[in-house]
Amino acid sequence: MWEYAPAPESRDIANLKPNYRMFIDGQFVEGAGDPLKTVNPGTEEVLAEVSTAGQADVDKAVKAARRAYERVWGRMPGAERAKYIFRIARLIQERARELAVLESLDNGKPIKESRDVDVPTAAAHFFYHAGWADKLGYAGYGPDPRPLGVVGQVIPWNFPLLMAAWKIAPALATGNTVVIKPAETTPLTALVLAEIIQQADLPPGVVNILAGAGDVGAAVVSHPDVDKVAFTGSTEVGKIIQRQLAGTGRRLTLELGGKAANIVFDDAPLDQAVEGIVNGIFFNQGHVCCAGSRLLVQESVADELLEKLHVRVSTLRVGDPLDKNTDVGAINSREQLTKIQELVESGDAEGAERWTSACPLPDKGFYFAPTVFSNVSQAMRIAREEIFGPVLSVLTFRTPDEAVAKANNTPYGLSAGIWTEKGSRILWAAQKMRAGVVWANTFNRFDPTAPFGGYQESGFGREGGRTGLEAYLDV
């Protein structure tokens, strides 16, 4: 079999530093919390030591954000705000290669995904929202939409830079100031984004970035002078935040977990569908809230599709995230790898048929081979719980009504996919699916102009597009 020669990207491009500090009121400062060591999941080596926040640091950040909002940013004309946001977007583009390498080192995702998806889309969010900054009066929210004030934001580890852009860009465009906490295991690109913000001469205090564990995020969320909270992460933590903020009058948007159904009808172009299925579940090692982790296939084509799927998955290359030929990188942490292994073992115990790619895995690092379960029932844990890894559960159906019923048989509702040649069937199924985003004959396609978000235990509120602006405005 023909093999690819190794094509590693140089890690020197990341300009990795031994120590990183928090960003408060326009300056990089030491935090009062215990420093954390961030680890390369591909090699298990320590990358850097990161200063973390204590409660006093959270107070300073919120005060700086409040001061910046009241004196500078909240008063600034939209056209002036747009100049800063546009400048941030251009600087992300200029430092794109550095950011992509650093993201792959800290997160474990393949460099081709960091380079071609994460970083360009992060820049696109700033570009897009820069365009809205002076047009909010024409967004359909009335003649005088106003910012809310100080926004507290907490983001996950699966798309560290992109999630920061999703959160910060609309907040700035609408005139709010920000205190944001990146994930404990992936703080580095957010702190380099702080360098870019400083480089763009954004007024001090408009964006503050605090590193730390869950206690820092909890302190940001519960701070009494935060006017709005935006959280992306697990459903369990989302429920805690919702209980905390209930009755306070503060705004809240939640983007939580998912267990998306990817439905393949008997008239679907199977080769195209296989590519979409692979992208839907193995992109970013399956660390995607909207991953197509439940594959629903019409019985008459199930065997043929599964055979094609096994062949295609067996060609995926698992390994060094910095190798440009790698398709599936490292699992983000040992904790997450343990969770994936435990759920896969439950699939074996409950009687599903496991097929795992025979690809070799590196000796060091946190890796898991792409896995497909067939003969899965809806009662099994692998069909109900979010695995957040490169594991696909395959179920079958006979009729379109059965497909929709099985797709909706979940407490989540973030995304779904439909594969068929009939446009009428796409529209029919999309109307019946309880999911915030429904893709047709594709999967995992994102655009800053399109709203994204879910229903039920996948959260509420939308991010992106004109709709996403509303969460940051008093309308």
Brief description of this entry?
This protein has 475 residues and is α/β, with parallel strands linked by helices. It is built from 15 helices and 20 strands. It folds into 2 domains: 11-255 and 455-474, 3-Layer(aba) Sandwich (Aldehyde Dehydrogenase, Chain A, domain 1); 261-440, Aldehyde Dehydrogenase, Chain A, domain 2 (3-Layer(aba) Sandwich).
Outline the structure in words:
By secondary structure, the chain is of the alpha/beta class. The chain contains 15 helices and 20 strands. Strand 15, helix 12 and strand 16 form a beta-alpha-beta unit. The termini are far apart.
Defining key terms:
single chain, seven-stranded mixed beta sheet, 20 strands, Aldehyde Dehydrogenase, Chain A, domain 2, 2 domains, six-stranded mixed beta sheet, alpha/beta, Aldehyde Dehydrogenase, Chain A, domain 1
